[in-house]
Every structure is written in C-alpha cells, then in structure tokens.
Amino acid sequence: MILPLYPHIAHRSSPIPDIERTVSESHPLVRGNRAVVFRMRRRWRPACVIVVEISRRLQRLCELDLVGGENPLIAEIKAAVARAVADQHGLTATQVILASPGAIPRDALNATDRPACWRIFFRRHVDDAEV
After folding, report:
1. 30-to-8, 27, 33, 47, 107 alpha-carbon distances in Å
2. Which of 39, 70, 85, 88 has the most CB atoms at less than 10 Å from its CB?
3. pTM of the shown model
C-alpha cells in the first residue's frame, strides 16, 4: 500500500522544490522546471514518485507512446532521475513517470497544479512496480 506524505511529515528534510530541481537537472533530455515529486512512505521507508516532462527533442527521437514499451534511452533517463534523487536527497524513487511535453498541468500563475497532477497521473500509473 502506498500512502502519500505531506512535506512536513516526510522523513528527510529536503524540501520538494529542491528535489524537483534535482530531477530537472538530472538528464539533458528532461525539461527544466517541469517535474513533480510526491513524497510517500513505502514499507515504512521514505520514498517518492516522480513525474517529469521530457523534452520535445526526446519525443521526436523516440516517436513512441510513453505509456507503452521501453526504449533504452527512456530507461537511461528513468535511471538517471532515480539515481540523482537517491544521491542528493536519500530518497528512493518508487516510480519515475515520463510525460509528454505539456502534460503536467499548470494553474493560472504557471505553477504546477499538484492536485490535478495527482489525479491525472497517479490514478493511471502508480502501482507496486519498482524503478
């Protein structure tokens, strides 16, 4: 069972924006400032689920449905994101979800709409799969 944690309850002291910045800088084909991290506990250990937009360049390179099959470049990006978060913040990335450019919802002030992101991605993607 996966339970969401709010930032003030989380085990580590790294704020969510710092983790999202780490994700954005983890690979050149990840869109800068287009990541959402949700902290949670998994089997009583701190973990996180990451949704990150890929660059339009990667989308053209792969020409595939990101929900479907795996491409070696996609696997490399997921591993780089998970490794960066683990190295810099000590959190295990339970799942890394790559989204098409523009898929992460924004509000009127161009900030990430976190509740909408949770509804769109996690009802569809979060399961017991490990990265």
Report:
1. 27, 6, 9, 21, 21
2. 85
3. 0.73
Do the bridges between strand 30-42 and strand 92-99 make them parallel or antiparallel, or are there none, so unpaired? unpaired
Which SS3 state, helix, strand or coil, does residue 102 take?
Answer: coil
How does 104-130 read in b/e, with b if 16+ C-beta sit within 10 Å?
Answer: bbeeeeeebbbeebbebbbeeebeeee
For 16, what's the count of Cα atoms within 13 Å in the CB-facing half-sphere? Answer: 19
Strands (E), 1-131: 3-4, 30-42, 45-54, 92-99
Residue range 61-103, pLDDT digits in tens: 776 544 455 678 888 899 999 999 999 988 888 889 888 888 8
Domain ranges of the chain: 3-125
Q: State which fold the 3-125 domain adopts.
A: GMP Synthetase; Chain A, domain 3 (3.30.300)
